[in-house]
Design goal:
heterodimer, A: alpha+beta, Heat Shock Protein 90, 6 helices, 6 strands, about 25% strand, B: alpha/beta, Transcription Regulator spoIIAA, six-stranded mixed beta sheet, about 40% helix
Chain lengths: ~200, ~130
């Protein structure tokens, strides 16, 4: 994965260009770009479930895909910068976020690509976690998952540390990630790819 | 202690806590938008029940969660921690852990619970899909 924003026809969305570039020789079986809310995630995950079932993926693969899909898309809700908060929240804090999710397949493997803008300081936190994950073996990841599960989490955390560990644990390769500068902004586009 | 019944939603499980029958049940999928918010009241209710409970009759907990996200996993751990504390005081707490026979993730999570919460009487139930 190259560290530059793909240049091409600027009418095409940045997210779509990134997806196409990294899914170059793959078959894209699902793509959504737009605002993510819990309702949208539930509906989209349903469509994804049906699509993967239709493609005949094994039960274990379907479970891992669904799990990674939920973790990645809920991270978009929790960590994206491009948000507005609806005022009608009574109990729950209604959060919507902009991002994209792409699922591509290649030789029986599935790739989940996810992109969303984040604040620069969040990007640094994520980078630290992901670089650390990159150094771990699968056994290390499993051990760290168990440790993090038992640890007293930070009060406001919605489980992001455990979330990345969950995706990493189910992936067949180390997670790929990239942070790309956004034009006219201090924010950063966070790209994550998991292979199952 | 009032019983709790929360019907399942598209992303949260059915919660059926019959405190009077000493039977607690969780069933479905758990990936609510804000897991801390969803589970906090549930865990608090269980803690309250434990605190007020004068009986040492056994408590049965049936858990049949086919999926839970990472933040729910964390909250579930604290739920079972509370139940484990109760079991440590002499009251038997039976945990029936149901999962699809091919679902290693749920199975392994159950094993984690079993290892950590030694006072719970843990029973793994692999069900055929």
């Amino acid at each position: 994965m190259t560290a530059h924003i793909p240049t091409s026809n600027s009418h095409q969305s940045l997210h779509w260009r990134i997806c196409c570039q990294s899914a170059e020789r793959h078959k894209v079986i699902f793509y959504y770009e737009g605002y993510f809310s819990q309702t949208i995630i539930v509906a989209v995950s349903d469509a994804v479930k049906m699509r993967i079932e239709h493609l005949g993926a094994a039960g274990l693969t379907r479970r891992k895909l669904f799990s990674s899909f939920i973790e990645m898309t809920q991270n978009i809700i929790h960590y994206s910068v491009d948000a507005y908060t609806r005022d009608d929240s009574t109990v729950f804090n209604n959060e919507v976020r902009h991002g994209s999710i792409c699922i591509s397949t290649d030789a029986g493997r599935y790739h989940l690509h996810c992109a969303n803008p984040v604040h620069a300081d969040i990007a640094e936190q994520l980078r630290g976690k992901l670089e650390h994950l990159h150094t771990l073996t699968l056994d290390d990841i499993k051990r760290e998952y168990k440790r993090t599960l038992r640890a007293e989490g930070p009060k406001d955390s919605k489980g992001a540390g455990l979330g990345l560990l969950t995706v990493a644990r189910d992936a067949s390769e180390p997670l790929e990630f990239e942070f790309m500068p956004l034009p006219n902004s201090e924010d950063v586009l966070f790209y994550l790819k998991a292979t199952i | 202690m009032t019983n709790i019944f929360i019907p399942a939603s598209t992303s949260s499980p059915e919660v059926d806590f019959q405190f009077d029958q000493r039977r607690l049940s969780l069933k479905g999928e758990a990936y609510p938008e804000n897991a801390a918010l969803f589970w906090a009241d549930i865990v608090a209710a269980v803690r309250q029940f434990i605190q007020e409970d004068k009986s040492d009759a056994p408590i049965t907990v049936d858990v049949a969660l086919s999926y839970f996200n990472s933040s729910s996993a964390k909250m579930l751990f604290s739920l079972f921690d509370a139940l484990n504390e109760k079991a440590a005081t002499g009251s038997s707490v039976i945990l029936n852990w149901f999962h699809d026979e091919e679902d290693d993730t749920i199975y392994e999570f159950g094993q984690e619970l079993c290892e950590d919460f030694t006072h719970l009487s843990f029973h793994d139930h692999a069900t055929q899909s």
